[in-house]
Amino acid sequence: MDADDDAKRTMIDVVLDVDTGVDDALALLLACRHPLVALKAVTCVAGNAAIDQVVANTRAVLATAGRLEIPLGRGAAGPLIGNHRNASHFHGSDGLGDLGLSVASAADATAPAVELLRRTILMAERPLSLVCLGPMTNLALLVRQHPDIAARCERIICMAGSLGRGMATPVAEFNVWHDPEAAAICLSAGLPITMYGLEVFMEVTVTSETVADLLEDPSPSAVLAGRLLGYLADASHRLGDMASGDDICIGDAGALCALIEPAGLTTGRYPVEVELAGTWTRGQTVVDRRRRIGEGELHGGAPRHRNLVDVAVAVDAKRYSALFLDALRSTN
User: In this predicted model, what pLDDT tens digit does every residue of 58-98 receive, in sequence order?
Assistant: First the structure.
């Protein structure tokens, strides 16, 4: 995007719903640094870590970015059904790479997440977008308690699901697997949701050389991003999950890139269902890309899916990695 194109764009009012999380932290830093993002609030949900840890991690990132004035919401401590299950094996025991971040006491007060979402959406002076980077529990509670308020969002991007591959299980992505019922509620609510799934999630990467540059940058946000990306590289190597050489996936931050520059994301509008009962498939997002009804439905199987969702199918990875890095560097 050239300077003339950027000059024509307006600010984007955004609420982030996070389960911070190493790559959630990268998305938070991007939201705090990008000149077109007006971050109106952040709400927290249990996922990568327990809710109290998620709140502490989020405060630490906002403190590093110098943005403790942003309203912070404490949300669901677990899924709608069952118990919280963290991702400490990947994100570290504190959910934030065990980097030892601390935060000043200025941000101790938090609001209930659903109430903060309701109030922020209701009081917005221009269209507001929601980016959900963790389990969809907070959004599902908002949908159930205030469906008219949830429908006011101009756009909702959820890091959720996939076209077939899995992460938490062979077929289920972590955020949907953690709370399948919440995902089912949200994806069937008729909201303007874009499902930013694993196929595109894994494509947006930066190089190890770029990480070294961030660590030398005078901006505290850039240095933290470099440390987080370094941890992601180490964790991915340890778990055998490096997809393309030494390139490091920016993960959740890519979903925010898709809001900032939607032209970099290719989507298709497909029926999507969430598997709730399968022994091996609970939490799977079933994306129906067929062009006609099938024999399964014709012979008395499950009815044709009705929940149409914008599903990401391809991404301009270089565009989004450049967007991310340009925002984090102190010279931009």
Answer: 999 999 999 999 999 999 999 999 999 988 888 888 889 88
Q: pTM for this structure?
A: 0.91
Task: List the one residue out of 135, 50, 64 whose CA is nearest residue 99.
Answer: 64
Neighbouring C-alpha atoms within 13 Å toward the C-beta of 20: 29
Tokens of 118: 């309701």
Residue type present at position 50 = A
Looking at the domain 3-198+259-289+306-313, which fold is it? Inosine-uridine Nucleoside N-ribohydrolase; Chain A (3.90.245)
Could you give the count of Cα atoms lying within 13 Å of 320 in the half-sphere of its Cβ? 29
Which amino acid would we find at residue 318?
K
**Domain residues of the chain, as ranges?**
3-198+259-289+306-313
B/e letters for 124-139, b = 16+ CB within 10 Å, e = fewer, are beeebbbbbbbbbbbb
Query: Token digits for 11?
Result: 């600010």
| Burial of 288 from C-beta contacts in 10 A (0-12 / 13-18 / 19+) | middle
